[in-house]
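ok so for the tutorial part 2 we go from a plain amino acid sequence to predicted structure tokens. step 1 is just haveing the sequence, like this:
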Amino acid sequence: MALLTFSWVGSVFFMPAKAQNIGTSELGLGLGGVNYKGEISPKYRFGNNGPAAMVFYRRDISNPVTLRASLLVGATGASDNYFKIPLNQLRQARMSGSLVELAGGLEYNFLDYYDLRRQQRWTPYFFVNLAGFLSSTKTESDAQAVVGGSTIGSQITTTGQGGEAEKRNILSISIPAGVGVKFALSYHWNIGAEIGARKIFTDLYDNLGEEQSRGLANPHNSDWYFYNGIALSYTFYKIRCPKVYRSNPTPLE
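step 2 — the prediction. this is what the tokens look like for a chain of 253 residues:
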């Protein structure tokens, strides 16, 4: 049974990329929104989407599996005022800023997208990446209630040397994962849509960690960010030439 399982996995990842011996790669542009879930937005709220753009590259390594790399740039923001939770109403915080993400990973296509014999080419897909991101956000509050000897607003607002609200930079890693679907418009052009969540390893995306805002932040509410959008891409095809026959091949051939 173990041998059969190993053989199946090997056939998925290492079988020839196309029956026609064609290699493919894609270059594309996506437009959509960056969203956030955390202290200020405990639930996913569609209205929190900020404009975002993604440039991506795909290259096949087998029929179902594709390598992918992407650069995502977007605006991010949220407000306590949209949630009728006592802590949110007391805190009255709002967060805004920008996000840059560089990611790479794998994409699994559930259908043979580049089988050119299909009349309508399309496939759903799943992806998982490893990413590095830089967020630059500021968090403000006008709340005048006093907690711990100072106003909530003064504890939450990220201030600079002049006392004005300023952005703080967070550099960290995330694990993007999600689903999408793509359709072939023609031999070269494709259109698609995807949505993905990013698990991040810091609770300071919104500047509201437990140590920074004691009693005003929930240590059990981890920060996440999301991207959802549509994309247009162009496919490049490469005919793989058959290997030249050698009567005495070297060990590396």
